[in-house]
Amino acid sequence: MSSPEKNITSVLKETRQFPPSAEFVAQANVPGAERERLVEWAKADPDGFWAEQAKSLHWFKPWDTVLDWSNAPHAKWFVGGRINASDNCLDRHLATRGNKAAIVWEGEPGDSRTLTYQQLHREVCKFANALKALGVGEGDRVTIYMPMIPEAAVAMLACARIGALHSVVFGGFSSEAVADRNNDAKSKLVITADGGWRRGKVVPLKANVDVALDKSPTVEKCIVFNRCNTAVEMKPGRDVWWHDVMADESADCPAEPFDSEHPLFILYTSGSTGKPKGVLHTTGGYLLGASLTHKWVFDIKEDDVYWCTADVGWITGHSYIVYGPLCNGSTVVMYEGAPNQPREDRFWEIIAKYRVTIFYTAPTAIRAFIKWGDHHPQAHDLSSLRVLGSVGEPINPQAWMWYHTVIGSGRCPIVDTWWQTETGAIMIAPLPGAVATKPGSATKPLPGIQAEVVDKQGHPVPANAGGFLVVKRPWPSMMRTIYGDDERYKATYWSHYPGVYFTADGARIDEDGYIWVMGRVDDVLNVSGHRLSTMEVESALVHHPKVAEAAVVGRPDDLKGEGIVCFVTLKQGVSPTDELKAELKAHVVHDIGALARPDDVRFTEALPKTRSGKIMRRFLRDIAAGRQSTGDATTLEDLNVLAKLREDDE
Ligand code: PRX
């Protein structure tokens, strides 16, 4: 990485622009003039615009009304339409793409598998029948806690096929997190594996589930896929093997037509309180958002080999590994493990092996690649690549330029995609054949998306002034509610400005109308592109018997974007030792998962508080940042603007 001094330049001064090449424009799904047409059409006649786009899906019965916003902020899209997500991702491809690879999978130990659309369809149908045989039906909730193997997608699509809601829990979360999510969703069944490979070790998923199920009274059954051949305990009457339940199942399972608003899944994400929110997405609108944006933003063509490196445990995996690409009949690469196992060139090896054309990853990974050295990508043939994507956190211009030159050979448009679990699909991103990119900006809202940056009163801010990112019109893939908590849904997203969706991100718009997202203004951290609430970490800490009080803040981190710093006061008589610091870090990992491991635990006599007893977080953030920041990942100006916005939001 370059020197800190050089990196303390603001994105405010970033003026480089990269228009798409004439060659790219000539073949683009959406060239510039077409984008303009779509933008104007969506503004003038939003319902007509979305209705036309929705024709790209297969409907058993067409809708009567495009948008019903009468019960705002609970939207209904394509009201009266009947649809099945699994049918759209599988059945309708069989006639034309039956033998096309749907999932090309690379396991960590070097094993690999390819499933054609025909084969994937067969697996999904059989597994859907197996779920039915175990008593799962329409509206039931199913927790999926799986490694990155094709069966994770099979499980999701099987649930969708029979109208059960899946709740995928990232395999890096702890048993506590699994239990919490089981209980909030009142899951009836859990699908897991004995384990999954990560950095040469087996992550003991089934053992975690065993602990979780002791505290999950609603769960009746558990299906276990044998991935790693490790010994697991199978509880009689509760646990069944995947291969056993599949053995005699028929591959005949017609997709049922569900209401367009039938819930498709719940995905838990962190908010500003200690309790994760179950973001609820429904079928028609979500599927349209995921598939349309996949086609537009990645310029998807029939023969593309598309690889999104996310885990299916996150929204990126839902929308851009499973639903979007499979709905478009794409070939999707999927991998298990980590980018530096067995070696730091794993990704480049996979790209060369499968001739990947579209590659979608996160800035935190890009920063790690830079650290590991250019010789890794340079040792592989990356000439198949044609579009590069970024997601999950702001990408600093230095990382953007490296991605552009070293991975893309200066040839591939970079699509920096801003969106959230709640938005379901990409909201702000360049259409690669239409919009010139600027390093560090997600550029402009997609056609039909009315995103703006406003001040505290809701007025648009002048060029380059910081403000809050909001969305002013409902869009098809928006979340419908927080599962079981309509009030929290309204309070979190719709109470800042009447009728306007509040993203909790700070941003600015430059003089060309480009949006620069700076980061969260609430108490949500973004650690390596993963969302984590400061309150979740605090509540884990105060559960420890030696801790009296805790305050958790983020600090800029050159690799992870944000690191976790914990200020802890101890109970009387407890000594502040290094051993205790290590113990507290391990305790947080145990409670939440490895992604929440604190970078720093600092013991303090007291926490700084206002007279009314509120912890002075800005003060703690400044202290936490002071020691570490080189300003590389987040620029200093941005930090100042964010600090100000956070105060405004309080
Ligand atoms: O702060 C924004 C950041 O990630 C948050 C959403 O996190 P999550 O729901 O986990 O979804 C991540 C994957 C879509 C946002 O509120 N974020 C996401 N993408 C970007 C981003 N920040 C800046 N630029 C992005 N491209």
From TrEMBL:
<dbReference type="InterPro" id="IPR032387">
    <property type="entry name" value="ACAS_N"/>
</dbReference>
<dbReference type="GO" id="GO:0003987">
    <property type="term" value="F:acetate-CoA ligase activity"/>
</dbReference>
<dbReference type="GO" id="GO:0005829">
    <property type="term" value="C:cytosol"/>
</dbReference>
<dbReference type="InterPro" id="IPR025110">
    <property type="entry name" value="AMP-bd_C"/>
</dbReference>
<feature type="binding site">
    <location>
        <begin position="416"/>
        <end position="421"/>
    </location>
    <ligand>
        <name>ATP</name>
    </ligand>
</feature>
<dbReference type="GO" id="GO:0046872">
    <property type="term" value="F:metal ion binding"/>
</dbReference>
<feature type="binding site">
    <location>
        <position position="531"/>
    </location>
    <ligand>
        <name>ATP</name>
    </ligand>
</feature>
<dbReference type="InterPro" id="IPR042099">
    <property type="entry name" value="ANL_N_sf"/>
</dbReference>
<keyword id="KW-0460">Magnesium</keyword>
<feature type="binding site">
    <location>
        <position position="528"/>
    </location>
    <ligand>
        <name>CoA</name>
    </ligand>
</feature>
<comment type="similarity">
    <text>Belongs to the ATP-dependent AMP-binding enzyme family.</text>
</comment>
<feature type="binding site">
    <location>
        <position position="505"/>
    </location>
    <ligand>
        <name>ATP</name>
    </ligand>
</feature>
<dbReference type="Pfam" id="PF16177">
    <property type="entry name" value="ACAS_N"/>
</dbReference>
<keyword id="KW-0547">Nucleotide-binding</keyword>
<feature type="modified residue" description="N6-acetyllysine">
    <location>
        <position position="614"/>
    </location>
</feature>
<keyword id="KW-0436">Ligase</keyword>
<feature type="binding site">
    <location>
        <position position="544"/>
    </location>
    <ligand>
        <name>Mg(2+)</name>
    </ligand>
</feature>
<dbReference type="Pfam" id="PF13193">
    <property type="entry name" value="AMP-binding_C"/>
</dbReference>
<protein>
    <recommendedName>
        <fullName>Acetyl-coenzyme A synthetase</fullName>
        <ecNumber>6.2.1.1</ecNumber>
    </recommendedName>
</protein>
<feature type="binding site">
    <location>
        <position position="520"/>
    </location>
    <ligand>
        <name>ATP</name>
    </ligand>
</feature>
<comment type="function">
    <text>Catalyzes the conversion of acetate into acetyl-CoA (AcCoA), an essential intermediate at the junction of anabolic and catabolic pathways. AcsA undergoes a two-step reaction. In the first half reaction, AcsA combines acetate with ATP to form acetyl-adenylate (AcAMP) intermediate. In the second half reaction, it can then transfer the acetyl group from AcAMP to the sulfhydryl group of CoA, forming the product AcCoA.</text>
</comment>
<feature type="binding site">
    <location>
        <begin position="392"/>
        <end position="394"/>
    </location>
    <ligand>
        <name>ATP</name>
    </ligand>
</feature>
<dbReference type="InterPro" id="IPR045851">
    <property type="entry name" value="AMP-bd_C_sf"/>
</dbReference>
<dbReference type="InterPro" id="IPR011904">
    <property type="entry name" value="Ac_CoA_lig"/>
</dbReference>
<feature type="domain" description="Acetyl-coenzyme A synthetase N-terminal">
    <location>
        <begin position="36"/>
        <end position="89"/>
    </location>
</feature>
<keyword id="KW-0007">Acetylation</keyword>
<dbReference type="GO" id="GO:0005524">
    <property type="term" value="F:ATP binding"/>
</dbReference>
<dbReference type="Pfam" id="PF00501">
    <property type="entry name" value="AMP-binding"/>
</dbReference>
<feature type="binding site">
    <location>
        <position position="547"/>
    </location>
    <ligand>
        <name>Mg(2+)</name>
    </ligand>
</feature>
<feature type="domain" description="AMP-dependent synthetase/ligase">
    <location>
        <begin position="91"/>
        <end position="482"/>
    </location>
</feature>
<feature type="binding site">
    <location>
        <position position="340"/>
    </location>
    <ligand>
        <name>CoA</name>
    </ligand>
</feature>
<feature type="binding site">
    <location>
        <begin position="198"/>
        <end position="201"/>
    </location>
    <ligand>
        <name>CoA</name>
    </ligand>
</feature>
<dbReference type="GO" id="GO:0019427">
    <property type="term" value="P:acetyl-CoA biosynthetic process from acetate"/>
</dbReference>
<feature type="domain" description="AMP-binding enzyme C-terminal">
    <location>
        <begin position="536"/>
        <end position="614"/>
    </location>
</feature>
<feature type="binding site">
    <location>
        <position position="542"/>
    </location>
    <ligand>
        <name>Mg(2+)</name>
    </ligand>
</feature>
<dbReference type="InterPro" id="IPR020845">
    <property type="entry name" value="AMP-binding_CS"/>
</dbReference>
<keyword id="KW-0067">ATP-binding</keyword>
<keyword id="KW-0479">Metal-binding</keyword>
<dbReference type="GO" id="GO:0016208">
    <property type="term" value="F:AMP binding"/>
</dbReference>
<feature type="binding site">
    <location>
        <position position="316"/>
    </location>
    <ligand>
        <name>CoA</name>
    </ligand>
</feature>
<dbReference type="InterPro" id="IPR000873">
    <property type="entry name" value="AMP-dep_synth/lig_dom"/>
</dbReference>
